[in-house]
Amino acid sequence: MNDASASAPSAGGSDGTRGPRATGETHPAGAAGDPAAPGRIVLLTTSHRVAPGLLSWAAWQTLHAADRVLCADAGHPQLPYLREAGIEVELVGGTGPTAEELVDDCAGGRTVVVVPPGEGDRRLTDGLARLAGSGRVRMPDLELLPGSYDLPGARLLDLVQVMDAIRVGCPWSSKQTHEDLAKYGIEETYELVEAIEDGDREALREELGDVLLQVVFHARIAQDDPEEPFTVDDVAGTIVEKLIHRHPHIFGDETAETAEDVIGHWLRRKAVEKNRASVTEGIPLGQPALALAGKLASRVRTAGLDVPLPAAGDAAGDGEGMGEALLALAVRAEAAGVDPESALRAAARVYRDAVRAAEESRDGTGEASD
């Protein structure tokens, strides 16, 4: 088990409760009882995203070997589990111990562990820094010991918690439906695409967050559905299962040497999952027309179907046949490995830049004409 989540039997026995049995071990830092030894101050940090009582083994060892364990927060979530493990925690009134008091407590080689609140104790750390920088005080050893720490993705828990509070307490958010939010999902997706095409890393991070908000918001709305509720965990669980199932070369016994092999695995597994009667099923008709044409062409080509395109007619006349001509171009682009939607958007951006350049270089006031 990873140290970040290690727990051991309590002082009462091996019943699976949290906190290790007191062992009487002592920590080698400083010789207790030696009046010349400076001692040791340990700030024990924990993450509110990890269940209380699940501490690293190093944290449990330090707690049991400490001469004093101090905490200023009587409601600290770790306290019941520390006491259950046989650790005596002294509640310090007010704002907690001062830096000077801690230094004095460590005299004689003693070890003092401080369990600060979840947001930390800036007053104490600043005070210790000032004492250490003054050069007038013989400082004990200072140690920041993570008792528990966040794993990647931990801030997603914060997002879920914040979204839940907003859904309950915000007059606007509490009334929104999936239908109300649909337009924002489309808007945020386009803003994400623009950030990608602009190569703007700061905007990319922000827009990814906005898209993620749409997912969490919709999941929170779904949680309130009286007939078919589901949660954000259900959403995450569904995509996890899908990814595992469609990557048998990672999570199973199959192999994939090339990207084409991976796509083959994906499509075969997807076909079994969906059991669709037509390759056109599952293609949203509401997407932009060029993207729709490219997706249809991709499905047809992958399925090995030979489907003639609609006759183009005379596209140079009054517009008749223009759609067919555009469809043919989209199919050609897809066959050549080019996304027609992205290609046209890139060309349009170049054209936009050319328009701006023409506006800046023309004579006159530079005001745009109607």
TrEMBL record:
The keyword Hydrolase applies. Its EC number is 3.6.1.9. SUPFAM superfamilies: all-alpha NTP pyrophosphatases (SSF101386). GO terms for molecular function: nucleoside triphosphate diphosphatase activity. Residues 176-251 form the NTP pyrophosphohydrolase MazG-like domain. Residues 1-12 have a biased composition (Low complexity). It comes from the Bacteria. It holds the Pfam family MazG. Residues 1-36 are annotated as: Disordered. It is an enzyme of class 3 (hydrolase). Keywords: Hydrolase. This is Nucleoside triphosphate pyrophosphohydrolase.
